[in-house]
Amino acid sequence: MNPYRVAVVGSGPAGVYTTDALVRGALDVSVDVYDRLPTPYGLVRYGVAPDHPRIKSIVVALRKVLERDGVRFLGDVHVGRDVTTRELAELYDAVVFATGASVGRRLAVPGEELAGVCSATDFVAWYGGHPDHARAGESFPLEAESVAVIGAGNVALDVARVLVKSAADLARTDMPPHVLDRLAHSRVRDVHLVCRRGPEHAKFTAKELRELLELQDVATELDARLLPAGSQDPLAAANLKVFADLASREVPAVRRTLHFHFWSRPVELVGEGGAVTAVRLERTREAGGAVVATGEVTDLTAGMVVRSVGYHSTPVGALPFDEDLGRVPHDAGRVLGPDGRALDGHYVAGWAKRGPSGVVGTNRACAADTVAGVVADLAARPPRGAGPDEVDRVLAERGVRPVTYDGWLSIDAEEESRGRNLGRARTKIPDWETLRHVAAADADRPDRGAA
Ligand code: NAP
């Protein structure tokens, strides 16, 4: 009997963990992993902070999955444009959408359109060398001395840390050279983290906060009077301990300062001549478990404002999408149609399924939950999916030429080689043209077949 054929759309952690669970499962399954980008690993490659190599090293495990028999990588294929979701559903026994949540939520306050205001999504993608943002440098001149980062999550902390870290520290990362150059010439002196609730409610994790203690020339300003004595919640208690350490820390030679503003919510972004100059903050307080405004307003000077208040997903082709929740409607991973019933052969995993929460490893259990449904449904009927040749023919007919896994390995090798030349482990190739060129060069080599 032929294997069941499953398409996984998205090669970030959720897509790769889904693939892993499928090929390790009880059924004989082969998987085609699609990605819009020529490169795999999604947010592990483009979202995890470049100065977090330990988290990035998860790639070693993800790579083993993509190299398993019966798994193919088809990069540079935009599902919903190059091939429709319906076509995929016809070609495969099942399709699992692991397309993530790539759009930064808005603050919904006046002034968001001002120059100098950006989403963390865009800023992170730029410094992470995402090819959609290769030319975004002009949006981030880093000429402002004061920057406000809105939000109290780990992404806000990543952005703040990259802004205060020294160029020498960042030079060890895989950031593209033009990004490093911009950061090396940054005029930023003060970074303000704006948190609408108290330190005990912050969503930072203690491990990430603790890294700030290691920055020898970065002072931390926070009002120690706002730190409660402790918390029943162990995660909050761990954060409070780090905040106390940060508040009492002496930094002899201060190069930059990171300020924490608790109980402050942005009510307006103030501008002059079309560019942001300040964030109008309103003091908040807790009343009956809710955050309430006090009416007390102050202006915080900021020539750049990064909003980092979470993400939402975007619709993929004709796949059902819940605009209110910002993700795909589902029941234990089975995509629900407009009538509320499971849509045959359509599944979802990762942030597109549960929203933008959790760390990389959270996606493993999330994928397993979805795959349990896929396997139960497939086991009830024989395989009917088209073979790989048929899929390749459909794509080739419309001029779509996927980047194969070997093509990605060429990009990988080229990035390592560029890094070595600069004394670093890797330097990312930040533009589409070069990525495609390097990948295609491999496919054209006579001794390497398509993966
Ligand atoms: P997050 O953890 O959900 O944090 C979002 C923050 O934005 C919260 O502090 C929230 O405050 C605040 N917020 C929401 N709406 C706001 C508004 N209108 N005005 C002001 N503040 C607002 O999201 P994230 O930082 O984007 O991270 C996403 C996920 O990726 C998280 O699970 C995170 O842990 C993970 N991640 C992990 C790492 C790591 O492990 N190193 C790194 C990056 C990201 P409230 O709490 O008051 O709603």
Short summary:
The chain has helices at residues 13-24, 42-46, 53-56, 59-66, 85-91, 120-127, 154-164, 167-170, 177-184, 206-210, 234-248, 351-354, 362-379, 388-397, 405-421, 432-444; strands at 4-9, 29-34, 71-74, 94-97, 103-104, 117-119, 146-150, 190-194, 218-221, 256-261, 264-272, 275-287, 290-301, 304-307, 311-312, 330-331, 334-336, 342-348. The protein has 451 residues and is an alpha/beta fold.
In terms of topology, how is this protein built?
Elements: E1 4-9, H1 13-24, E2 29-34, H2 42-46, H3 53-56, H4 59-66, E3 71-74, H5 85-91, E4 94-97, E5 103-104, E6 117-119, H6 120-127, E7 146-150, H7 154-164, H8 167-170, H9 177-184, E8 190-194, H10 206-210, E9 218-221, H11 234-248, E10 256-261, E11 264-272, E12 275-287, E13 290-301, E14 304-307, E15 311-312, E16 330-331, E17 334-336, E18 342-348, H12 351-354, H13 362-379, H14 388-397, H15 405-421, H16 432-444
Parallel strand pairs: 1-2, 1-4, 2-3, 4-18, 6-14, 7-8, 7-14, 8-10, 9-10
Antiparallel strand pairs: 5-15, 11-12, 12-13, 16-17, 17-18
Helix pairs in contact: 1-13, 15-16
The chain binds NADP nicotinamide-adenine-dinucleotide phosphate.
Explain this structure to me?
With 451 residues, this protein is an alpha/beta fold. The chain has 2 domains: 4-102 and 313-402, Rossmann fold, CATH 3.40.50; 104-311, FAD/NAD(P)-binding domain (3-Layer(bba) Sandwich), CATH 3.50.50. 33% of the residues lie in helices and 22% in strands. The strands form 4 sheets. It has a 7-stranded mixed β-sheet with strand order 3-2-1-4-18-17-16, with helices on both faces. Strands 6-14-7-8-10-9 form a 6-stranded parallel β-sheet. It binds NADP nicotinamide-adenine-dinucleotide phosphate (NAP). NADP nicotinamide-adenine-dinucleotide phosphate binds at residues 55, 107, 150-156, 158, 196-197, 201, 203, 205, 208, 265, 308-311, 356-359.
